Amino acid sequence: xxxxxxxxxxxxxxKILTEGGIEAVVNxxxxxxxxxxxxxxxxxxxxxxxxxxxxAPVIAAGKNLKIIGRAGVGVDNIxxxxxxxxxxxxxxxxxxxxxxxxxxxxxxxxxxxxxxxQAHKDLKEGLxxxxxxxxxxxxxxxxxxxxLGRIGTAVAKRAQAFEMKTIGYDPMVSxxxxxxxxxxxxxxxxxIREADFLSLHIPKTKESLNLINKDTIAMMKDGARIINxxxxxxxxxxxxxxxxxxxxxxxxxxxxxxxxxxTESPLFELNxxxxxxxxxxxxxxxxxxxxxxxxxxxxxxxxxxxxxxNAVNLAPIKPxxxxxIKPYLNLAEKLGKFQAQLAAGNVNNVxxxxxxxxxxxxxxxxxxxxxKGFLTPQVEDSxxxxxxxxxxxxxxxxxEETKSxxxxxxxxxxxxxxxxxxxxxxxxxxxxxxxxxxxxxxxDVVPEGNIVFVPHIDKPKxxxxxxxxxxxxxxxxxxxxxxxxxxxxxxxxxxxxxTPLPDVLLAEIAKVDGVEEVRMITL
Length: 523
Prior knowledge:
The chain is of the alpha/beta class. It has four domains: 2-92 and 285-304, Rossmann fold (3-Layer(aba) Sandwich); 97-275, Rossmann fold, CATH 3.40.50.720; 322-448, CATH 3.30.1330.90; 450-522, ACT domain (Alpha-Beta Plaits, 2-Layer Sandwich), CATH 3.30.70. It is built from 17 helices and 22 strands. The protein has helices at 11-19, 33-40, 56-61, 80-85, 98-114, 116-124, 150-161, 175-180, 188-194, 214-219, 237-246, 284-303, 319-342, 364-375, 388-394, 463-472, 503-510; strands at residues 2-5, 23-26, 45-48, 67-70, 89-91, 142-146, 165-169, 184-185, 197-200, 224-228, 249-254, 273-275, 349-356, 398-404, 412-418, 421-427, 433-438, 441-445, 450-457, 477-484, 490-497, 519-522. The longest helix has 24 residues, at 319-342. The radius of gyration is 30 Å and the shape is elongated. The model has no long low-confidence stretch (mean pLDDT 91).
């Protein structure tokens, strides 16, 4: 595996990649899109910070790209839809700069409240303007938080130490979760109306672009203040300028801007606007942490074949959830491969039931793993955890997830019905996947290697002739399982063989009296 490392990402990240068995190529030159397109094709992955843009043409040129990493939180410089459509994983480092961004927010809030940058500037220029810069205290003020993720809740915790009242809104957070962090959950408009200090901690999306504009500012308290350490463009800078200049707002503190880098803005003319050149993640610790986090993700994905914890174009997986489902990911994928090779005709419906312990956890990654295994033998394009759900949807496959708390004979069970065929699997021990059911038949098959699947009538002179055909052609039978529902009824035979049977032998087995079907399955 070969990874391109750009934008002066920490050397410690390069060390992790190298020690993990990845060839890391460092290029800290600023490259144009064309230059990047010319070289990206030879790499399996690329790591960037904020300077380099990974655009749709770059992604199209990256024929071998499997993963794109952002050593930081924001991924505005990466074309996520293009990466997803190409089946390329995009990861970031949401935890690495949490403290840095949190402390920057508190620093700007304090600087804004006490006019520190302005007073500092004047005093350095020989002016003692003590009366001019009378500030306000944070104690007993209302801090309104838009966005209650890692940074938003960390800011709330620190603001509460200043005896501020913290209120907040986040469409992805429940009132109970907010309350557990000491935040009173309120509708967005109420947060805007009630805040003395309004702090933003949300990504820039179509919905959040220009969220803070002349209309929402008009809803705010007279003399309120705005802090933005999130993303430029969430605050309409012209509308903010007018509001501060008119006295509607007492001031603002901005670490980010709609266009970056920027050295000219009407906002810079206002003495009660505190600005910084996007320093939210600019601490020594944060720069190292985000690089290490991304590098570790690359090793896990490219070398170890594991799922990413911080995928941007996949639903994030909490550590406790990943720990619970990780042993079952391989089983789910094997069930998918197995069903794909049994499926006859067009597949319209996939129904997956998770029973026992699996009914208590988030199982969407397991469903994705099943789809990855199911689609891989059937499509020409590369199928992975990113694009498997997209490909299934494009092919008109309806996927249903259900849960059953009933454990039955097994602690945890995955049962998959594709059209009318049912296959179920479980784990024996911590890492011993087994297929324990095909349709109505109970079996015990290790899902690996080459398996000959032979549904037949339960009667004498079937198992022997089938085994003889295989043996006479110098193919070793490593194991066999037979399952039946009742004497003389339908049955199924599963033979593990050392090498796949050619079509001519499968046709010969199919001629044995009582054999209903023959399939060669390779897992």
